[in-house]
Structure formats: structure tokens, C-alpha cells
Write the C-alpha cells for this entry.
Amino acid sequence: MPNNAREQRRAVQLPSQLAAPKPSWTREVDVVVLGSGAAGLAAALAARPVREVLIVTKDTLDAGSTAWAQGGLAAVLDPGDTFAEHVRDTLDAGAGLCDEAAVTSLVRDAPTAISYLEKLGAAFDPGADGLRALTREGGHSRSRIVHAGGDQSGAEIQRTLDESAINAGVEVLDHAFALDLVFGVSAGARRQVAGVRIALLNEDGTVASVGVVLARAVVIATGGYGQVFASTSNPAAVTGDGHALALRAGMTLSDLEFVQFHPTVLWQEVGSTKQQTLISEAVRGEGAILFDAAGERIMQGVHPQEDLAPRDVVAAAISRRMAQAPAGVDDHVFLDATSIGDHFAERFPFITKSCLAAGIDPRTDRIPVAPAAHYTCGGIVSNLDGTTEVDGLFAVGEVAYTGVHGANRLASNSLTESLVVGTRVGRNLAWQLPKRVAVDESVHDNGVGLIDDTSRATVRTTMSKHVGVLRKPEGLQTAIDTLAEVAGQSSSDVVATRRNFEATNILMVATAVAATALARTESRGCHRRTDTPDQRDVWKRHLSVSIDGASLLIAGIPSEG
């Protein structure tokens, strides 16, 4: 912690373990991977030629966020582009909080990651010259986004990695919920991960049995926490499980206040809490323009790149315009893609299908859109080889904080990071594994029970209302108070089920996000405070959060902040 920094403690009533039946079985593997998106699959696949690898997923192999990604992967592939430009664009988007060395490392390895996917069988869209087609997205100074199936890049990446992992002999344990990590002590008297406690689920989400998977290495690749918010582009499974797992383990997380809200998500109805269809940034890259309900352009004069400004800038501009309620409309604006014409359906088949299902023809109609929670920039403190503060424990993908994204992620850098870091982790584990350690049986359970799933809606609507794109101090405090009330409803009488596990995890993560958002008294990247609308030099730092006993500990707050 910097010399001029201080800590803040908030009393919390959050569990140190998820309440569940006692373990009735054990098994041993070399490596267990929690999560089955691009990051986890890349790690599993790279480790598998040498190691026994088990993927644990609470759904099926293809149920995470990766399959829903539309844009693609960012990499320097055009001869006119340079690594330096990609690095600069990433640093600019990150608003002063990126780790330049981490960014540079990622950018240099990105082209290799794409070539690797192609060798595995991924088919990216070709351009007129027969080479990979490249498009441009918000915040990028060049066209450097590789895509597949028009707007189905994630689905192609997921398919490729799924098939490759299965063919390589990676074992998959589906419908299995990762409850908590278990630890031991290494020969060097350091805490070391020993495995993970797992709940096997019935079809209805009830617990069939609980066991412990013992492993020499655990890779957390559980994705983000979009479902902490009522309005999100994330699928239902993205409930912050890995973040909550780490918090209960006493680990340090960083930058949780930086939640990226995608500016253009299909708006369909008032008060919807369903997963919402993302309207890819690439649509604006092809020429679409944002208008308010009164027909006025939104991004003109706001940023030099106008409609292709970074996501945080666009989302904030849309939110401010909606607050003005032009033509009496305060919950959405419009994306005009009619200039793309008939080419729209060919370039964006999934978006076209989603719009048509909602009664909108994007070739002739303006598309109603609004910002929604999309990506979490912060997470478990790790580096670009996935290592964390705990021996044998690795974090990759959206659950991790590596320093790449800073205060706002540059579009399409996330899948690239997942592949690069996931592959590094797997290869390193193939080369060397920690020695197995015995489980420490003296772990303390603080006796705080689960949250009933009926409280999930309260948590999510509270977060969307008060911890959304534009944040006010009084709203943030209201959110914290409301979340504390929900935490007070935890009970040992709440039955162990998937939905109740998820509700408890959502509450834990929401509490940490709201607290760090209140602590950061400036606007930077995708954290926008209405009371302090400008960046402050004193805040060019990271906030870390952890749970210490009955306290939520926030570290890194500037003494003059």
C-alpha cells in the first residue's frame, strides 16, 4: 500500500464458507479448472498433454459468457498497424490505471493466440483479399478486430476450444458448483491451495452430494459478475462465483468499482431483468450513429472519435442524455444503422435475428438501446502468468485483475487476454506443478448462513439503480445500507441449492463493488461519480478489497482523498 494511503473497514455479515452438507467423497487430479469459458478451456487444453485435468462447471461446457461474445479478438495483424498503437489505445482506454508492461506483453502475444486458434480449427471471416477480415471498434485507432460468423465470434471460439479439450481428454464435471477452496501449508510454511469443495447438483438445482476435489493446482476461470446487476448482457450463470470464492478465502481483489457498461444493449421493455442482447460496437464501426428520442446526435462534440469513442465515454453520454428525458424518453436512445442497408443481415446475423424477434428491422428501423452491465475490469489480483498471492492458485480471464484493462477495458481485448493468459497458465502447469499438500482441517466457519434466492431481485435492482453508469454518493450509501439489510436475512435454515449459493455470491460481490465505488471519490474510466466528475491525480491508484473476519477491508485510499 502506498505510504500516503489509508484503509477503511466496514462491518459485514457475510459467510466465510457456503453452507452445504458435509463432504461424502474425495478424488484426486493434477489440475482442477473452475469455469469453462475461453480462459479456463485454454488453460485446460495447454496443461492436458502432460497433466490430468478436470474442468468443473455449474452448467454445461458451453454455458458461460464466451459463447455470447460478438465482437472478436483484438490483435495487430494489418501491416499498417503497430504494437505501439495497440498498446497506446489500450492505455488510453484504461485511464491511467493499466500496467504498461502487462499491456505490452499481451499485445505482442495476441497474433500468436489467433494463429493458435486457427490451428485448432477456428474459422475467422475472410476479407476481400482472402486474408482475415478486420474491423474497427470503439477506442481503437485501427481496424484490428478478427471476427467469425459476422457477430458470432464467441460461439466459434467456444466451439473450437470445446471440441479441442474433449478430443485432448480433458474431463468435464458439469452441474457441479464450486463452493469453497481448501488449503494446506507448503514446505516453505506458506498457504497453498489443496483443492476445492464441490456440490454436485440435481437437475432442479438441489444438492445431490458434496465432495472435495484434491489438486496440486486450482485455476479460477469463472468469469465476471454481470448478474449482480438487473440490466446486463451477461448470461444467467455469470454470478460472480469466483470473486466470492476468493473473498471468502481472504484473498485480495482489486478495481471492483470499474464495471464496464456496454453502451448499446437492445432495449425491449421497462424494468426487464433478463439477459439482454448486445448490439456490438462493430455496428458503429460499420457506420451506425446514436440519436436521442428527439432526433439529436448524442456523441457529436462529446469526443473526437464521436460514436466510436471508448465504451465508458459512450455509456456515460447516453446516460446523461437519458437523464434529460428528450421527447419524454428517459430509459433508452436509438442506434441508427440504416446506412448499412442490406449488408447488415450478412454482417450481423445474430443481431438481426434478435432485432427481428423484437419487431425491429435494423435495415429500416432505428434500434432502441441502453447501457447494461457487460464486463468487470477488476478481480483477483494476479499477473499475466495467472499466479496469485496463494501458492498453487491461478486466476485467468474476467475473474482476474492483471493490470491490462485499468479503469476501462478496450473493446475485444478480453477474449485475447483469456487465450493468452489461459494458455500461459496451462503450459506452465504442464512444465511444473506444486507438490501436493494435506488439507488443513481447522478452517473456521463463521456460521453465517445462505441468502434465500428471493432476495436476488432486491440486490440486482438496487445495484442497477444506485451503482450503475452514473453514481451519486447518497445513492451508493443507500445501496450499501440495502445490501446490509439483505445480509442480515442470512439464515442457517436456507436450504443449500444452486440458486441460493448464487444469491449469496451475488450479495458478497455487490457489497464489495458498492463499497469501493463509494470510496473512490473521483470519475475515472467506467467509474463515474456525479459529485466529482473529473479525474483526480491523487486517485491514480488501485483500491484493493478483502474480507478480514467480520470486516470488509478497503485498502489504497489516499489520505487526502
